[in-house]
Amino acid sequence: MSTQPFADLHIHSNHSDGVCSPRELVDKAAKHQLRAIAIVDHDDVSALDEAFAYGRERGIEVVSGVELSVRNEGREFHLLGYGFNAHDPTFSAHLRLFKEKRLERAQQIVDKLGSLGMRVPMELVLEKAGHGTVGRPHIADALVEEGHVFSFQDAFNRFLGNGRPAYVPSHRLDARTAMEMIRKAGGVSVVAHPGLDLGEALVLRLLKLGVDGIETVHPSHNAAATQYFSDLARRYGRLQTGGSDYHGGGQGAATLGHYKVPYTCVEKLIKRLQKLQE
Ligand code: AMP
Ligand code: FE
Ligand code: FE
Ligand code: ZN
To answer: C-alpha dihedral over 48, 217, 194, 220, to 10 degrees?
Structure first.
């Protein structure tokens, strides 16, 4: 029987669009016998302190993490950050600004919906967002609750999807700036789930820009994709990470414990962090 330890480096908490609290996630990690986890909330690091403290209590190693919404040459995608100082002033200031801009944008979307005759109370949208940074999914939920649309998907198809009448683009950092910011906060950056929709050219561009790693294990990657990105990471001498992208709740509820990487990935990540500090 193998006793190789594992890690899940892609988990969402209720500080973004996940369902579980940081404590519940640490408990789940213990249940699935993971040695280490990273909570990577969307553009938010407020879950980390609770996770660090409770992780120490339960003997689960918690690596700081975040999943940033970025853009590069007209493309929008997710960039993971790991091992940074969650209280770095510049980084914190950016995340605060980001949160404010998201709030302004949500209000603009709600105003557009209002002018289309679909009145949605902003309080309801914020209630849906809870701890997390407000986004279109919360507005979609509110539209459903107010009876303006048949379903979450209907809300996107008719109003909120890119190019639809209530669409407002979101504030995003350029990938290069985001990578620098993570680096300055003492962390490393990793291209999130490149197999989902990134395409080879963009991944190669990010490697050239100096991204530290590639997420190779992810529920959206089949065996061939994992192999492909793993070979690419090796060829460029970059890190490999991976995890479940667990959000809890309905869809994908069973991913935690199934999508994981050998703990050696964490050791390599820590080695790279140390090297950056030399
Ligand atoms: P935001 O960051 O506020 O632009 O919201 C992005 C999120 O909205 C994505 O992570 C998806 O969950 C959801 N989303 C975006 N476009 C669609 C779409 N066409 N259909 C369903 N969900 C979508
Ligand atoms: Fe998410
Ligand atoms: Fe993502
Ligand atoms: Zn994610």
So the answer is: -100
